[in-house]
């Protein structure tokens, strides 16, 4: 309901704004770290608890538009985030992927991003199917605070 009823960001790219944030604004936008070529942030509208997004710093719609260094940096950051997420929440599995373009399911199609979704046996139930509702066991701000220490060793800018 927060998304449906809340104001939509007409002032630019939410990922670019999150990556450009400083200080406490990083916490407000739930950015765990801004590294050399990308940022790790908590998905505001997650598929599951601790759903992370890895976004390149440069605003591109497709990974084909990234330089070799940006591409390598994005995937190294993705791997580093997965390692930390496994330590933080001990998922039994992980969905890792990208939706490139609106037809592929990209909610924000003009800025490519990688999804890391931790999974546990029985983590989904009838709610998404019958009621079109996702149930999150933890508030996003609490999840952010829980994950933040696991990203403290990554080089980059953070809260």
Q: What's the arrangement of secondary structure elements?
A:
Layout: H1 2-5, H2 14-20, H3 24-28, E1 31-34, E2 38-42, E3 52-56, H4 68-89, E4 93-97, E5 114-119, H5 127-131, H6 140-147
Antiparallel strand pairs: 1-2, 2-3, 3-5, 4-5
Short synopsis of the structure:
The protein has 159 residues and is an alpha+beta fold. The protein is built from six helices and five strands.
Percent range of helical residues: 25-40%
User: What portion of residues belong to β-strands?
Assistant: 15-25%
Question: How many β-strand stretches?
Answer: 5
At the fourth level of CATH, the homologous superfamily is: HIT-like
CATH architecture label: 2-Layer Sandwich
Gyration radius over CA: 15 Å
Intertermini distance: 27 Å
Strand line-up in the sheet with most strands: 1-2-3-5-4
**Class of secondary structure makeup:** alpha+beta
Assign the CATH class: Alpha Beta
Q: What is the number of helices?
A: 6
Largest sheet: 5 strands, antiparallel
Could you describe the 3D structure shown?
With 159 residues, the protein is of the alpha+beta class. It contains six helices and five strands. The protein is globular, with a radius of gyration of 15 Å.
Q: Which tags fit this structure?
A:
5 strands, globular, HIT family, subunit A, 159 residues, alpha+beta
């Amino acid at each position: 309901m927060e998304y449906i009823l809340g104001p939509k960001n007409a002032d630019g790219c939410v990922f670019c704004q999150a990556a450009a944030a400083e200080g406490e604004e990083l916490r407000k936008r739930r950015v765990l770290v801004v590294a050399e070529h990308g940022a790790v942030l908590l998905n505001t509208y997650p598929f599951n608890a601790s759903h992370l997004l890895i976004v390149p710093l440069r605003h591109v719609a497709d990974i084909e538009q990234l330089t070799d260094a940006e591409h390598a940096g994005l995937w190294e950051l993705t791997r580093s985030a997965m390692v930390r997420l496994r330590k933080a929440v001990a998922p039994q599995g992980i969905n890792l992927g990208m939706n490139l373009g609106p037809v592929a399911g990209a909610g924000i199609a003009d800025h490519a991003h990688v999804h890391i979704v931790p999974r546990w046996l029985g983590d989904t139930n009838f709610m998404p199917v019958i009621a079109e509702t996702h149930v999150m066991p933890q508030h996003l701000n609490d999840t952010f605070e829980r994950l933040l220490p696991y990203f403290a060793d990554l080089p980059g800018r953070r809260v």
